[in-house]
Write a structure and sequence with these properties.
Shape: globular
Number of strands: 0
Number of domains: 1
Structural class: mainly alpha
Strand content: under 5%
Distance between the termini: 49 Å
CATH architecture: Orthogonal Bundle
CATH superfamily: MetI-like
Length: about 230
């Protein structure tokens, strides 16, 4: 199966956008999951609902909201451009932002489930022995929630690879700039006689997504087994 330069560009851009989105999601998702799991504050349920809203909102609505807020003429987008020179609309950076928004619930939920299962008596014991909160998090909490973090990374990466609605609404479908695999496949579907090219991109998407999920399961099991051995030892 030989890919055309058009398809290679779409594939490389998809991997680039998904990788950047996952990289940004990692600290954001861990912090929000920690906040929701370990802290009580006014508006917690509202924050939780907002984080999970992309799961139930149509992706086109998410793209529209991003366009009117972070687009070049949006209230936030105008400030970002004047202050930092950043432009998200009709740019691959905007595709990354769209993927971050739609994948955030998956990352937060995966990490939060792991945090909820942690025995916080271990952290309290470490603090009693004089360890700082940051040291406790990186030496005790983070290793214990690592399976959930890995699952969140892989799910977010796979979700970003398949993102379509929010991306096309926010940054359009520009070859070489914002056209990821789903958008390139959409072009093929609309083109008479391009069924084989569309099927080829479909197979590539399935292979990448399936590989991500299998890798997530394998890594999570391996980490759990290693943690179990260390705790028993």
């Amino acid at each position: 199966m030989t890919l055309t330069p058009y398809e290679i560009d779409a594939l490389l851009l998809s991997l680039k956008v998904s990788a950047y989105a996952t990289l940004w999601l990692l600290p954001i998702g861990i912090f929000l999951a920690w906040l929701l799991s370990t802290r009580q504050f006014f508006g917690k349920q509202i924050l939780d609902s907002i984080i999970h809203l992309p799961l139930v909102l149509p992706p086109v609505v998410i793209g529209y909201l991003l366009l009117i807020s972070t687009g070049r003429r949006g209230w936030l987008g105008d400030w970002l451009y004047d202050t930092f020179g950043l432009v998200f609309s009709f740019s691959w950076r905007g595709a990354v932002l769209a993927c971050i928004v739609v994948s955030l619930p998956l990352m937060v939920r995966s990490v939060r489930l792991s945090l909820d299962s942690v025995d916080f008596k271990l952290q309290q014991a470490a603090r009693t022995l004089g360890a700082s909160s940051i040291r406790v998090f990186f030496t005790i909490t983070l290793p214990l929630i690592l399976p959930g973090v890995i699952t969140g990374i892989m799910l977010s990466f796979a979700r970003s690879l398949g993102e379509f609605g929010a991306t096309i609404s926010f940054v359009s479908n520009i070859p070489g700039e914002t056209q990821t695999i789903p958008l390139a496949m959409f072009n093929y579907i609309e083109t008479p006689g391009a069924e084989m090219q569309a099927a080829r991109l479909c197979i590539i998407s399935i292979v990448i997504a399936l590989t991500s999920l299998l890798a997530s399961e394998w890594m999570a099991r391996r980490v759990k087994r290693r943690l179990g051995q260390e705790l028993n030892g």
